[in-house]
Structures are given as structure tokens and as C-alpha cells.
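Quick sanity check, ABM domain-containing protein:
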Amino acid sequence: MNPRSPSILACLALTHLACTAPEDAPADSRSETDTSTDADEDSDDDSETGEADLFACEDPEFTVLRPLVGPGYNPEQGFTGEALDGYVVHSTQILVPPDRLEAFGAVAASVTETLDGYDASSGLIAYAIATEPNCGFQRTLGIWASTESMYAFVMSEAHVAAMSMTKELSVTGKVTHWEASAEALSGAEPVSWAEAMAKLDAVDPSAYY
């Protein structure tokens, strides 16, 4: 990947500038029924552009912190346990400023501890974690036996606690999930980070992730 933005600080600066767009037309030039201003409209457009710029950041130092592994999959053996016709794949992308990384890491550790305690009966097949240090993105990727098992984790105590701290620990984020056939996940790399990134690129930021 080629970097389009040098750091999270540059991305945040774009957002700040977008939120302070000056008014460029006098109030008396508007009709009585038009309660909006050009500045409001410009600010909205610029804010959307600023947020898009945040997610446009690409990091040449993309690093996998934990490879895809879990109670139902490991790189040496592939899928283990009961063969399924299909799976559910999820991915998250969370923008964490440098000054919140330590606090974010503590909360994330409690979530991964929950996942690491799962066995095959939980429906978790495998999960992976990656980071983009220059952009500030923290990413997850997981494979589940069903949407029910995935949502059971989402509503787990550790994950609910983490979601409640979304605004405190991060700037913005995205989450998505999709169904995948066993055939689609049958390669040497069942789900690539490139595929997960493409799926996330296609969705809007979420209030919780």
C-alpha cells in the first residue's frame, strides 16, 4: 500500500479545519423561508470530506499483531472440528489517537481475554488483530459459525463495556460482517486483510464498533 496521509495528526487537522468553515454570504441575501446558511452547507460538506480523509489514510507499516487463529482454525491445519456449509466474517476499523492508545489497549485486552477463553462450542472459529501505526487504525478480523454466535460475543460483558467507551477511546470507526461459503474460505488464507479493508471501505462509520 502507498501512503496517502503521513499521520493521524494530519488527518485530525483536516477534520478541525472542516469544522471551522467561515460564513461566506450575508444573512440578508437569503429568503425568509430559508433558515440554512451557505456556511452551514459548506461546513457539512467539508465535515464529510474531512471524515473521508481520515479513512483515506493508508499505512505502509501495516502490521499483523495476531494472525488468524482460534478454536476452529489454525494456519498449520486449516479449519478444524465440524465442517460447515458457510461462515460469518466480521471486521472492525477503529481510529485511536496516540494519547488514548494505552487506555484503548487495556480495554482491548479484556475483550481478547474473553475471546481467548472461547472454545469451539462458542461458535468462534478464529480472529486476528492488526494495526496501522502511522494512520492510527486498530483492526480486527474474525470468522464465526453463525450470526447468533457473533452477536453473543458482541453482547458479552467485556465487549459491551468496550462499546460504552467508544467516544472516550477513539475518534471514529467502522464495523461490518458478511456471509462466506466454505468454498470461499478454503484457500491458504481464508480471509485476507485486503478483503476486509475493501468491505469496510464500502460502509459508513458507525456509532459503536
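Posting the structure with no commentary besides this: The first strand starts at residue 63 and ends at 69.
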